[in-house]
Input
Amino acid sequence: MSQAASDYGWADRALHRLALGIPALTELSFDLDQKASEGARDRHVVERGRHVFVTGLARAGTTILLTAIHETGQFRSLTYRDMPFPLAPNLWKRISGRWQLEGVARERAHGDRIAASVDSPEALEQVFWRIHTGEDYIRREALVPYTPSARALGRFQNYVGAVLASGQSGQRRYLSKNNNNILRLPALLGAFPRARFVLPFRHPLAQAASLLRQHRHFSVVQTQTPFVRRYMDWLVHHEFGLGHRPFRFGPQSCTRWSADDPNYWLALWIDVYDALVGLEGEGLVFVCHEDLCREPGVWDALVAKLELPEGGERPPFVLAPGRTELDVDPALLARAEEIYAALRARTER
Output
C-alpha cells in the first residue's frame, strides 16, 4: 500500500467502505464504467494482446519485477490512483482528475524498504474476481482453485479493455500482479492466448521466512488498526495477517502447523509450487528470484520472452539478505528443495 490504510482519515475510510465494502455499489461502478467505455474498447487488442500477468506465491520478488516491467512504458496497469473505484477506471479518472496530487514515493506498509506511490502498479484487479466469482473460490478457511465461467471470463476481457481505454497513448498492453490468479490460471491461459504469465519463485526457506515475518507484522498492524484488515479483505489480500487464508492445492498439508510456525509456510510453499511446476502452457514463464538478481542474462531472456523494449538499463535487482536458518522439518525441506530444482529447470524452457 503506497499510503498505508492505517493513515486514512475518516472521510477516506468512509469512501472505501462505500466503494469496496458494499458489493452492489462495487458492481454498479463496473457496469457504469463498461457503458461509458464501450466505444473506446478494442476487443481484438484485448483478446490478442501481448499482456503480462505476474502471479504466484507472495514474497517472491513480484513487486520488484512488476515495477521493472511497468517502467518500460508499454503497459497500462491499475495503480492507487484507481482507488477506491478500481472497477471504474474511466469514470473515476474523469471525476478524480480535478484534485489528484503528484505521486510521492513512500515505503509501503510491508516495511520491506520497497517504495511506492499513487502511480505504482498494484494487485487491484482482485476486486473484479471477488465481485464476480467470489463465491467460487473464497472459502472461510482457504482460497481454492476453480474455473471461471465463460461469462465471467468475457466480462474480465471487457474489464481489461476498459483499463486499457483509460490509459495513455501507447499503453496497449495490460499488466497486472495478482497472486490469486494461480487459482484460475488454466482458464486465463485460454482467454488470453498471446499473454505471458510470469511465475516468480524464491528459495523455499527465504520465501517461507519472509512470509512468516509479514504474517507477524500485519497481525500486529491489523490488531492495532482493524480497518487495515477490512481493506486487505476487500482486495482479497489474504496472503498473511489476521485475515490469512492459504491457497488450497491438494490436501493443504500446511494446516498441520500453526501459522506462527515456519513449517506452516514451508509446507504452503510446497503445496503451491508443487501444483504450479506441473502446469503446461506456452504462456507460462517461470522466473527464479535468486537467478534474476545474480545473473544479468536472466533479465535479458525475460525481456525477449515478454517482448519488452531492448537496450534499456537493467533494473537494479538486489538479493536481500534473508533468514534461512529456520528450524524446519528436514523431510519437508528436502521436498521443497526438490521442487525448487524442478522450478529452476522450468526457467530454461
Observations:
- The first strand starts at residue 52 and ends at 54.
- The mean pLDDT is 89.
- The first helix runs from residue 10 to 21.
